[in-house]
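Good day; I would like, with your permission, to put a structural problem before you. What I wish to show you is a protein chain and, alongside it, a tokenised description of its three-dimensional fold. Here, with my thanks, is the record as I have it:
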Amino acid sequence: MPWKETSPETEQMRFIERWQGGEVTFVELCRRFGVSRKTGYKRVERFQSYGWEGLGDRSRAPRRHPNTTPRAVAERLIKARQDHPTWGPKKLVAWLQALEPEGPWPAPSTAGDILGRAGLVRRRKRGRSASPWSEPFAAAEQPNDVWSIDFKGWFLTGDGNRIDPLTVQDAASRYLLVCNGLRQPKGPQVRRVLERAFREYGLPWAIRTDNGPPFASVGLGSLSSMAVWWVKLGIVPERIEPGHPEQNGRLERLHRTLKAETASPPQATRLKQQRAFDTFRQTYNTVRPHEALGQTPPDRQYRQSFRSYPNRVSAPEYDLDVTVRKVRTNGHIKWKGNTIYVSWALRGEPVGLVPQDDRFWILQFGSLAIGLLDDRTRSVVHMPTKVLPMSPV
């Protein structure tokens, strides 16, 4: 039906007015407006049934859509988002499916549209990211292959107390082993927290950290007192490159979620802040789906290490062909009638020396090669730390 001269509504109104006037026959009226008699009668019938509002072209879209998400499902999805405001559509749908497998849950894309119409999601602009680094790190294929540890930046609670959140995460399963708010990022406090974790979960093969204290130092092999303790436990200390937090990206991503759910804004007191950390850790490990784990929570993947924390931490032992020297309290060793400075962090510990050639000796501590002793200059040369073949990693 054309109705082309102005608009369908205007032309149809003129058609009805002429029909009401009765000045021409119905056949002539249809001819003048360029429509068939069938179409003309159809417009008259619609006018008689609905009045002037019945004119105009009606939408041919179906009034009911069989694939429309039921209202109750949409409301359940919105409630889930309100309960977990940092979870995206994929996690919410996976969580609801786990709770109610028979439910008619929508696809994540549809869930995103529902939440968007409810004003509960904000589209983020996708930023450019640097190419990933290829690190000589231990493979995190099984639980306890690698743990990651770091401090999430400090903040003040509502009553002015400083909180330094310390987190420890299993890299393979994403299980959050530790989430403690310390008063200061000091070695003794960190060691007490780690001792409790070692007793509860056992020992990992490696621990990945940044290059700051108390995890690393500027000394030989970047060993700090804490790293020395780890080596004595048979744990390899791994350090990411300075300025490259993406090499510990799983923990960095966790920190973003931790801040959003527990410290935006911070809690009123230290005790309430720790309770928020504890609640977050419980939810993160047992409820929150993780896309890299097939939308299952970390506790479905994690299991304790078979390497238990020993009652007594022993010094490293070396093969018979390794020359052993004990580091004195001032950080020196005795070597061919001379004293040579090695490391303050290694005082009281045995180090091994293996000849490389006529001049240099490889200096090692436990499973790590940490430097070269120059026999001519009677000094130790820094070198990149290497894990020796004897390491269990």
